[in-house]
User: Fold this.
Amino acid sequence: MKIEVLGTGCAKCVALEKVVKEAVAKSGKFVQIEKVDDIMKIMEYQVVSTPGLVIDGKVVSTGKLLSVDEVVALINECGGKC
Assistant:
């Protein structure tokens, strides 16, 4: 599974990256985390409001800071099927 955190460096983007790392540790799953700050790559996902969260190539959240539990739920929901 691969999770991408989309954001150009805003406070919420930095916070979401931290939340994702905590959620991955809590889930106990092997997950590759990538921070994407290239505006062109963010635009490829058609995300206009950051932070954005992408799991296995699918945009699952935009424009809000998720909680650790919300990210864990998304990881479990996707389970490699997103």
Remarks:
- The chain has a mean pLDDT of 93.
- The CA atoms of residues 53 and 80 lie 15 Å apart.
